[in-house]
Specification:
By secondary structure, the protein is of the alpha/beta class. It has a single domain, classed as Flavin prenyltransferase-like (Rossmann fold, 3-Layer(aba) Sandwich), CATH 3.40.50. The protein contains 6 helices and 6 strands. A 6-stranded parallel sheet has the order 3-2-1-4-5-6.
Amino acid sequence: MKLVLAATGASGAIYLQRLLARLDAQAHEIHLVFSTYAKQVVHEELGELVVPAGVHQHGDKTMNVPFVSGSARFDAMVIVPCSMGTLGRIAAGTSDSTILRAADVFLKERRKLLLVPREMPWNLIHARNVVTLIEAGAVILPASPSFYGGASTLEAIADTVVDRILDHLDLPSPGMFRWKEPAE
């Protein structure tokens, strides 16, 4: 699979870190793009992001990457975490950065585009932007972890969101749908 991962300035760097840890960069071609604010959030939340060997890293101010052109065949793009500002700019069709142009290409080419917003609450503008993107073919996958599986660590809770991302990419997610019977 040829995959583009992008991170924007919303809180939730743990989701990106856990996703990177679960993807096999030897089996898949993975490109990673950070917005300027994403780097700041990663530093504040994690200190340092561990990027596996083989992942291609790019800045957000270049159009000299293959995935910003519809003629380059990529399978999916995941923006995690996705700020509501980025989501709104994608909905408006702006393409003035690497992340925004790539998202525009994935929409126009009808390729998988998953946006993982973590921000809440939403205002009416956010909700309308989400509807616009759903109508355009994007998948909006809010970072809403589940708690019914009995996760006991922050990482395990974050993995419930990562499992959903992997499921939408049609990639194995070993922790998916672990159901724990309620105690009586």
